[in-house]
Structure formats: structure tokens, C-alpha cells
Design brief:
The complex is a heterodimer of chains A (174) and B (147).
Chain A: E1 2-4, E2 21-23, H1 27-45, E3 61-62, E4 72-76, E5 80-83, E6 86-92, E7 95-96, H2 108-127, E8 136-141, H3 147-158, E9 164-171
Chain B: E1 2-4, E2 10-12, H1 16-32, E3 38-45, E4 60-66, E5 72-78, E6 82-86, H2 95-108, E7 114-119, H3 125-136, E8 141-144
Parallel strand pairs in B: 3-8, 4-7, 7-8
Antiparallel strand pairs in B: 1-2, 4-5, 5-6
Classes of the chains: A alpha/beta (174), B alpha/beta (147).
């Protein structure tokens, strides 16, 4: 990188003194960038989950483990329940639409999506003996979500074989 | 950056493209990384699926009900039945009292390893997680109930 200045003052003392070219020492800058890169890469790989919640979902804080896992993800916000990033049910102020929740607390719309996901897992497991159906479910729910909505989501998942819930929280131990 | 070549001449390595590459990578990582430390809390479900086979049934089954007014009812059923009501403290869950009640149960029945946690319909998730955190300090396995 070289800059041309009117004056003949130089920072580097390594270049021809008469040309008026100024050479910035960017080796130090490269070092700094390398350090930032290493720092970011380390932070990037040490996250517990491979996902980030949506901007409108504020997770609660709790002491949590930092295990890394991949599983089906459910996100509950004020306006919708998303499964693997796709809207599965609409909510109004965290409440399911009238008629969507049946007597046992299961949401009809969520039940359909969970069923499809489960069938997909079963088909993969059938075709590949090394793969087993996964009962784990990562739940990312807004901290203001009422327990009735949490219950409906978990009940819809449980009747389709997802019974090992992993609740995503902001790790307050850090 | 200068390197002296074999014949005594200074050779300058052009670091500008390297800086460009590093800038792009850093920008990409900054844009795609999350600065929230997200962790995982394990929870099972206390209904909806067949009960797991256990070798030994604990002496008492402990269930905790969070109430809308931040009060808590701790129930133990089995060898001895007991019901403890914990009233809210300043409108918040009295965590110390809850931990003490569970510690007393754990002391009397050391084989208790799990608790069923349920809440009233309007209790927000944040309070459920707060209660779960307190319970886990005494009894590690928490099942969500109320289905």
C-alpha cells in the first residue's frame, strides 16, 4: 500500500527518499486482522447450538450446559410457531387460534407438521440402519410465552415421538 | 514486509491483498456469528408417552405446581404424603424457600432423583425456567407436566 504525499516526510525510511512516496507498514495491521480472525473463529465454533433465535424471540436466562447438538428445532414467538424455520402455526399474542387446540392440548396444525418430520426420520431410519429416529427437540421459546402455549407445543411434539426436550436459554453462567 | 533475497536485494511482499482477504473474512464472520451464549437445559415430559421402565421406584414422587401469583405448591406422594405451599415473596417466586423444601425432601428420601414441574396456564416461560433452575440445584431431573 503506498500513498503519495506532497511533502517528502516518510514513516518507513525504507524507500527511495526522493520519490515522495510514503509506504505504510501494514504488517502490524495484518497481525491484528489475523488475531481478530482467530478470535472470531474460536467463538464461531464453540457455540452450543448451530442456530440463532429470531430477533423477536427473547430467550430466558438460566444456567445451562454447553453441549453441541443437532435436532429438530421449534421456535415460539408472539406471532407464530416455527418448525425448522418454517411457520407451522399462527399465534395471536402467544395464543393459538380458536379451534386449533383439541382436548388433549395438541395443536392440529403443529401435529401435522411434526407428523411429516417424524415420517421423514422414520423413512431415513428405514433406509439406513445406522440412523435411528431422534426423540430430541430443541425448543426456543420467548420468555413471555405462557405455559399453556408451551404445553400445547410440547404435547404436539410428544404424541409424535419427540419426548427429549432441549430448552434453549441464554446461558447465565457466562 | 521485507525479505532479503539470495542475491542481497530487498524483496517487498505485497500485503494489501492479504489484508483485503482478512477484512472480507472478518466481516463475514462478524455478520454470521451470534454473540449470545446459548445453552441447553434438559427437560422431559411427564405425560403423553409410555412410562419408562425403571429398576427401582423412588420412595416418594415429587410434583411442583407454579401458580399464577408466583406461589408454589410442592407435593410429595408415596411412603409419606406431604404438601407444602410457598407464598410469593415481593410478587416473585421465593426461590430460597423452594430450594429449602426440596433439600428437606432430598434429605428425607435420598433416592428421589426426579421432579415433575407444572404451572398454571398463564405463568410465563421465564418463571418456569427460573423455577426449573432452582429445582435443578437440588434434584437434577425435571419433567414438565400438566398435560
Amino acid at each position: 500500500m503506498s500513498l503519495r504525499f506532497g511533502k517528502k516526510r516518510r514513516f518507513g525510511m525504507r524507500h527511495k527518499p526522493a520519490s515522495g512516496e510514503l509506504s505504510l507498514n501494514i504488517t502490524a495491521m495484518a497481525d491484528i486482522f489475523m488475531l481478530i480472525l482467530v478470535f472470531l473463529l474460536k467463538g464461531y465454533t464453540s457455540g452450543a447450538l448451530g442456530v440463532s433465535p429470531s430477533a423477536d424471540v427473547k430467550l430466558p436466562a438460566a444456567f445451562a450446559s454447553k453441549e453441541h447438538l443437532e435436532a429438530l428445532k421449534v421456535e415460539i414467538s408472539k406471532t407464530a410457531v416455527q418448525i425448522e424455520g418454517k411457520a407451522a402455526a399462527s399465534l395471536a399474542e402467544f395464543k393459538f387460534a380458536a379451534g386449533d387446540v383439541v382436548e388433549n392440548g395438541v395443536s392440529k396444525s403443529l401435529d401435522g407438521v411434526f407428523k411429516v418430520e417424524r415420517q421423514r426420520q422414520m423413512l431415513i431410519a428405514k433406509a439406513n440402519e445406522d440412523v435411528k429416529p431422534d426423540a430430541r427437540l430443541i425448543v426456543m421459546a420467548d420468555k413471555g410465552t405462557p405455559y399453556s402455549t408451551i404445553k400445547s407445543v410440547l404435547a404436539s411434539a410428544a404424541v409424535n415421538g419427540y419426548t427429549d426436550f432441549k430448552l434453549a436459554v441464554i446461558d447465565s453462567s457466562q | 514486509m521485507h525479505i532479503e533475497s539470495g542475491d542481497g536485494q530487498d524483496v517487498e511482499i505485497n500485503l494489501a491483498p492479504v489484508i483485503d482477504c482478512l477484512t472480507v473474512i472478518v466481516a463475514f464472520l462478524l455478520a454470521s456469528s451470534s454473540f449470545l451464549a446459548i445453552g441447553i437445559v434438559d427437560a422431559g415430559v411427564a405425560a403423553g408417552v409410555p412410562a419408562p421402565q425403571v429398576d427401582k421406584v423412588p420412595s416418594v414422587l415429587v410434583s411442583i405446581q407454579l401458580q399464577a401469583d408466583s406461589g408454589v405448591v410442592v407435593k410429595s406422594e408415596g411412603k409419606a404424603s406431604q404438601k407444602t405451599s410457598i407464598v410469593a415473596k415481593d410478587g416473585q417466586l421465593d426461590r430460597e424457600a423452594l430450594v429449602k423444601a426440596l433439600a428437606d425432601i432430598k434429605k428425607a428420601y435420598p433416592d428421589v432423583s426426579g421432579v415433575t414441574l407444572a404451572a398454571d396456564d398463564t405463568v410465563p416461560y421465564e418463571k418456569v425456567m427460573g423455577a426449573m433452575e432452582s429445582i435443578r440445584s437440588q434434584i437434577p431431573a425435571v419433567l414438565l407436566g400438566g398435560f
